[in-house]
Amino acid sequence: MSTKDVNTMRIAPKVWRNGEFIDWKNARVHVMTHAIHYGSSVFEGIRAYSTERGSAVFRLTEHMQRLLNSAKIYRMDVKFKREDFCRATVDLLRQGDMDECYIRPIIFRGLNEEKPAFGVNPFPNPVDCYIASWDWGKYLGEEAIESGVDVCVSSWTRITSNSLPSMAKAGANYMNSQLIKMEAILAGFSEGIALDDRGFVSEGSGENLFLVNNGRLITPPLGAAILPGITRDSVIKIARELGIEVEETTIQRAALYLTDELFFTGTAAEITPIRSVDRITIGDGKRGEVTKRLQEEFFAVIHGKRPAPDNAPWLTYVNEAEEKKTAAASTTEG
Ligand code: PMP
After folding, report:
1. Which of 72, 169, 292, 324 is catalytic?
2. Which residues line ligand 1 at a C-beta cut-off of 6 Å?
3. Closest ligand 1 atom to the C-alpha of 173?
4. What gap in Å lies between CA 154 and CA 196, rounded to an integer?
5. Are 134 and 11 in contact (CB under 8 A)?
């Protein structure tokens, strides 16, 4: 077997580190690594899906661009380009014989063991880049995609963009997400929705949020304290293609209770319906028609069964990318 079984989870046997592939077991850091103490990391979550043409990575370029945007915000000097991260991802999946999997690129402030620096100032520390991959099922459960999840509004406020920019997918942001998630789980919910510092709806601990009202989609605007989700963007584009109106606007907490349908979007959560908020039933308490329609179209796109809106190149076919490279190499040799 080319991948190993750890707690029934298949993990790619190699990890990409600063331009080379190393064994999974060697992808370790020192306890005095800057990122462990001060949260100085930025990362991505990407999924690859099985298609008739083999494994395909969903919106790889956009994810790697967001990774580099996050690094730029935190003044991280990254020596690899977006294309390097994309190529490394394809090579990693190919080598590990990965099919449907989750991909985790991460850039963080490391430790120079010859010239250690332990203070908050990140500049003396090296910037390390890694990519790992593993098989990951449905984030909020297999059933959730059809029956929906029960969620609460969190007592925790979403981070404000002037303290920790929500545009960056930074490790530190996820301390706020963890407070939201833990509170929800301990209260018997699957997930929590955070309000922003003004009291308007922002997002889940790891998902964007959409309301469906009279057949129209409503979602908080990018200017709010939300991550500019790539699934969010995909859903908006698919909806508009289907002739469904989309409005990006501020949303009051109470509007969540009154909406016809409600769903989360995210790489991990994909499109997950929400059946109740704070124990108040949403609509009929089951997946609504618009949610179902968007799920069907979204799943068709990610599995290569229909083109993306405007024929956008949303899928990177792992085998074909490799074949192209091999063809190019043999041409050069020939
Ligand atoms: N918001 C937060 C806080 C997230 O962690 C995620 C997951 N990356 C999302 C939204 C959804 O973003 P995407 O669709 O790009 O995965």
Report:
1. 169
2. 45, 177, 203, 206-208, 227, 229-232, 265-267
3. 3
4. 10
5. yes
Q: 149 forms bridges with which residues in the sheet?
A: 274
The answer, yes or no, to whether residue 141 has pLDDT greater than 80, is no
Task: Please say if 169 is a catalytic residue.
Answer: yes
Q: Quick one: 260 exposed, middle or buried, by C-beta within 10 A (0-12, 13-18, 19+)? A: middle
Q: Alpha carbon of 28 to those of 76, 110, 125, 227, 325: distances in Å?
A: 20, 11, 16, 28, 30
Atom number of ligand 1 nearest to Cα 208: 10
Q: Average per-residue pLDDT in the chain?
A: 93
User: Looking at the predicted structure, is the pLDDT value of residue 261 above 50?
Assistant: yes
Question: For residue 179, what are the CA distances in angstroms to 2, 96, 117, 172?
Answer: 37, 34, 30, 12
What structural domains does the chain harbor?
3-134 (3.30.470.10), 144-303 (3.20.10.10)
- Helix extents (H) in the chain: 34-38, 60-73, 82-95, 144-147, 173-186, 230-241, 253-258, 289-302, 318-333
Name the closest-CA residue to atom 10, ligand 1: 207
Burial of 20 (0-12, 13-18, 19+ CB in 10 A): exposed
Q: 175 or 327: whose pLDDT is higher?
A: 175
Can you tell me the distance from the alpha carbon of 42 to that of 71, in angstroms, rounded to the nearest whole number? 6
| Closest among 204, 197, 160 to 181, alpha carbons compared | 204
With beta carbons less than 8 A apart as the criterion, state whether 231 and 267 touch: yes
At 291 the three-state DSSP class reads helix
Nearest CA to ligand 1 atom 2: 206
Cβ(60)–Cβ(89) below 8 Å: yes
* Chain Cα centroid distance, residue 179: 19
With 0.90 as the threshold, say if the pTM is over it. Answer: yes
- 216: which 2 tokens? 């129209």
SS3 content of the chain, % helix, strand, coil (to 5): 30, 30, 40
